Amino acid sequence: MCGIFGYIGSRRDATSAVFEGLKRLDYRGYDSWGVAVLQNKKILLDKHTGTVNKKLSKLPKSSISVGHTRWATHGSVTDTNAHPHFSSDGSFVLAQNGIMENYSSVKQNLFQKNYKFISQTDTEVIVRLIEEELKKEKDIIKATRSAFNKLKGRNTVIILTKDGQIIAVRNGSPLVLGFSKDKKEFYFSSDTLSFSPYVEKTITLDNGQMAIYSKNMLTIKNVKTGKNLPLLKVKNGITQKNEGKGKFNHFMIKEIFDQPSAIEEVIKQDKRKLEKLSKLIKKSKNVYCMGSGTAGAAAFQMAYYLRTYAGVNAIGLIGAECTEYLPLFSKEDLIIAPSQSGETADVLEILEMAKKKGVKVASYVNMPGSLITKISDISFMANAGAEICVMSTKVFISQIAFGYLVAKNTQEKYDQGVINLKILAKEMRKVLNNKDFLSQIKKIAKKLSKKKHIFLLGKGQNLQIIKEGMVKIIEGSYVHAHAIPAGDLKHYAITLMEAGVPIIPVVSNDAVSGDVENAINEIKARGAEIIKLPKLPDTGEVSAILNTVPLQLIAYYMAVYLKNNVDKPRNIAKSVTVK
Ligand code: GLU
Question: Which end of the chain is more exposed for a tag (fewer CB within 10 A), N or C?
Answer without folding.
Answer: C
